[in-house]
């Protein structure tokens, strides 16, 4: 399976912070924001990843991440000329996807939870589409999932004024290769965007959309506002400082998934020692049992 990170957009809700730099390059505690979704894909067992961003920001992502070989992965890049919707990622990535299955994750979404990696790995061979449902207090901001009495999905609505449930679709999606033709077939919404909800509706219409509810032990953070960005940093800081772990590290993900050897992992840590981040990476080795 292949993966796509959509890291475009103008980041207007974070102006003036994002007037000159991509939102997905902003810090979330001790790492660039994009490290978190990238490590999520890596923990899902995905090594071939396409990063989509604006033409202006793509060179910065390339400078930060390179071709992925240092992490035992393959990173490639493509431009989204304007924010035309999430589903456009599959049209932009058509050649990259080919006949393979693909996961899409949003560059400003952070996921954390025990068992999350195993859940993602179990979903990386979909026959149709696999999405998740997560309970929130403000569902009107997202794509809302409606279930019947038996827990079966009966509808999905994008940013409804009167949500039919408190369960929304977070920013990670798994699809078979039909997603490219589906994305090409949908029409822009009133916002002028190709909505991911319309892709999900088509899979639902075909009877091939599977929805898993993320349990209460899973954290999903959307870092699109000043408050949410600060809360995400505080969340990561508390967990890392109290438990001595590292969340959202692409270096740790590469090592724990076996993409790099112990010696390669040590090499990744060396240039990062002065900031303390590299020392914390090496501390992972000392905690191994």
From TrEMBL:
SUPFAM superfamilies with a match to the protein in the record: Nucleotide-diphospho-sugar transferases
Enzyme Commission (EC) number: 2.7.7.24
Family matches, as InterPro entries: G1P_thy_trans_s, NTP_transferase_dom, Nucleotide-diphossugar_trans
Swiss-Prot/TrEMBL cofactor(s): Mg(2+)
Coiled coil feature spans: none
Enzyme's top EC category: transferase
GO molecular function, one term: glucose-1-phosphate thymidylyltransferase activity
Keyword terms of this UniProt record: Magnesium, Metal-binding, Nucleotidyltransferase, Transferase
Source organism superkingdom: Bacteria
Catalytic activity line of the entry: dTTP + alpha-D-glucose 1-phosphate + H(+) = dTDP-alpha-D-glucose + diphosphate
Nucleotidyl transferase domain residues: 2-237
Family, per entry: Belongs to the glucose-1-phosphate thymidylyltransferase family.
PANTHER family: GLUCOSE-1-PHOSPHATE THYMIDYLYLTRANSFERASE, GLUCOSE-1-PHOSPHATE THYMIDYLYLTRANSFERASE 1
Biological role stated in the UniProt entry: Catalyzes the formation of dTDP-glucose, from dTTP and glucose 1-phosphate, as well as its pyrophosphorolysis.
Name of the protein in question: Glucose-1-phosphate thymidylyltransferase
């Amino acid at each position: 399976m292949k993966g796509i990170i959509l890291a475009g957009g103008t980041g207007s809700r974070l102006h003036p912070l994002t007037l000159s730099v991509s939102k997905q390059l902003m810090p979330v505690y001790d790492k660039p924001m994009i490290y978190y979704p990238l490590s999520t894909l890596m923990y899902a067992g995905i090594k071939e990843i396409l990063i989509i961003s604006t033409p202006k920001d793509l060179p910065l992502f390339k400078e930060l991440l390179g071709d992925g070989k240092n992490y035992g992965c393959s990173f490639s890049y493509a431009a989204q000329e304007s924010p035309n919707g999430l589903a456009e990622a599959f049209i932009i990535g058509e050649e990259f996807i080919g006949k393979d299955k693909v996961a899409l994750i949003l560059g400003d979404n952070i996921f954390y939870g025990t068992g999350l990696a195993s859940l993602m790995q179990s979903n990386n061979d979909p026959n149709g589409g696999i999405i998740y449902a997560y309970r929130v207090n403000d569902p009107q901001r997202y794509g809302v999932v409606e279930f019947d009495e038996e827990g079966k999905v009966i509808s999905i609505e994008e940013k409804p004024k009167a949500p039919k449930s408190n369960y929304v679709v977070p920013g990670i999606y798994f699809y078979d290769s039909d997603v490219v033709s589906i994305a090409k077939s949908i029409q822009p919404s009133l916002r002028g965007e190709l909505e991911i909800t319309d892709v999900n509706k088509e899979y639902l219409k075909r009877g091939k959309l599977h929805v898993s509810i993320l349990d209460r032990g899973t954290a999903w953070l959307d870092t699109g506002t000043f408050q949410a960005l600060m809360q995400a940093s505080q969340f990561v800081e508390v967990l890392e400082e109290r438990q001595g772990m590292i969340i959202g590290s692409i270096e740790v993900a590469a090592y724990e998934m076996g993409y790099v050897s112990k010696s390669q992992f040590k090499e990744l840590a060396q240039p990062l020692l002065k900031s303390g981040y590299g020392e914390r990476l090496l501390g992972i080795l000392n905690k191994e049992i």
